[in-house]
Design brief:
Number of domains: 3
Number of helices: 9
Strand order of the largest sheet: 5-4-1-2-3-17
CATH class of the largest domain: Alpha Beta
CATH architecture of the largest domain: 2-Layer Sandwich
Number of strands: 17
CATH topology of the largest domain: D-amino Acid Aminotransferase, Chain A, domain 1
Largest sheet: 6 strands, parallel
Strand content: 15-25%
Distance between the termini: 43 Å
Shape: globular
Helix content: 10-25%
Radius of gyration: 20 Å
Order of helices and strands: EHEEHEHHEHHEEEEEEEEHEEHHEE
């Protein structure tokens, strides 16, 4: 069934659900908040009082949070969700995912559903070496080895290659290796990977997976121009091969909810898996514009609404720009409290 209609988020509870979106200062948080709009009673959280997304909601719904990697993070969020009566918690920062996944049952006990994948799936995504090993028999993955002594000189896929941190997101720490000496300054202790260089077009595929593990939608976009890792010019394309690859990876890894699968074509034009961001991406608004309201359906699914069998998208082109949030002189920094 193709059904891209908007779900009625008020129906399951008899009222608009209360949704808390963290990382509100980042593009993923802003995209999610804008997509949900008036369909939910929105709350925001961020570690920085200057986070733009905080100011998309009234002052009494803005909260300053501890860092996602702090030991008290999950317990602090659990208490906040209990006090606010939050129905759905949407984390959008990588460091928050595993702590919240490990405590998802505790959130459920206070009535809060968390939009997060199981811990084992998250670990496979956040460790790029484990991701390659898990997907090697599922889809095309670039030839990859751990960067150890002599690895660059003996790299079977040939140079140039790419060295990247085993853990981490975005382009931080990535080095092009044209000769073995280019890798000399990097750690050779297994914390870096040496990976086949994929010279073709790069795509991001937003994937929505229902609670039963079935992929409902996979929407690919070309990364024609990026700024700080966020796409600012792109084409949403109808490429069943890319959609199929992303859906197969997401279901094989065991992801749930919304994730972003990054793919790049090799020298022959064949798409290969680069990495997975197991959370809502910063380009989510483009998927919504293409006719697939993933944020609404992700929230609906957590509230018990039956997911459609398939959400089809339409092709489009887009460029993106900054948008100001204009405030009263004393409004910047005004929040409900610090958790």
């Amino acid at each position: 069934m193709d059904d891209a209609r908007q779900p009625d988020l008020a129906e399951p509870l008899g009222r608009r659900p209360r949704v808390l979106v963290t990382g509100a200062g980042g593009p993923a948080g802003v995209c999610f908040l804008r997509a949900l709009g008036d369909s939910c009673e929105l709350f925001t959280g961020d570690i920085d009082a200057n986070g733009a997304g905080l100011y998309l909601v009234p002052m009494d719904r803005r909260w300053l949070l501890p860092r996602g990697d702090s030991p008290e993070y999950a317990a602090a969020l659990l208490d906040l969700c209990r006090r606010l009566g939050v129905d759905v918690l949407v984390p959008t920062v990588d460091s928050e995912l595993v702590p919240l996944a490990l405590t998802a049952d505790a959130f459920s006990a206070v009535g809060t559903r968390v939009l997060v994948s199981p811990p084992v799936a998250l670990e496979r995504c956040l460790d790029k070496w484990e991701l390659v090993r898990a997907c090697d028999d599922v889809v095309r993955v670039p030839y990859t080895v751990l960067l150890e002594e002599g690895a660059a000189a003996a790299f079977a896929a040939g140079l140039p290659a790419v060295a990247k941190p085993r853990r981490g997101s975005g382009s931080r720490g990535i080095v092009r290796v044209d000769a073995p000496a280019d890798a000399d300054a990097l750690a050779h202790d297994g914390s870096y990977l040496l990976q086949e260089l994929l010279p073709g077009t790069e795509y991001s595929v937003d994937v929505l997976v229902a609670s039963d593990g079935c992929a409902v939608a996979a929407v690919p976009r070309s990364r024609d121009k990026t700024d700080s890792g966020i796409v600012v010019a792109c084409h949403i394309v109808n490429r069943p091969d890319l959609s199929r690859l992303a859906a197969e990876v997401a279901t094989a890894i065991g992801l749930r909810g919304i994730s972003n699968v990054q793919v790049r074509e090799d020298r022959t034009g064949r798409p290969a898996l680069l990495e997975i961001n197991p959370r809502p991406p910063g380009g989510m608004s483009l998927t919504v514009a293409a006719g697939v309201p993933m944020p609404q359906w992700a929230v609906a699914g957590l509230l018990g609404v039956r997911m459609p069998g398939h959400l089809a998208h339409r092709e489009l082109s887009a460029v993106r720009h900054w948008e100001d949030v204009v405030l009263a002189p004393d409004a910047l920094g005004a929040v409900a409290g610090r958790v």
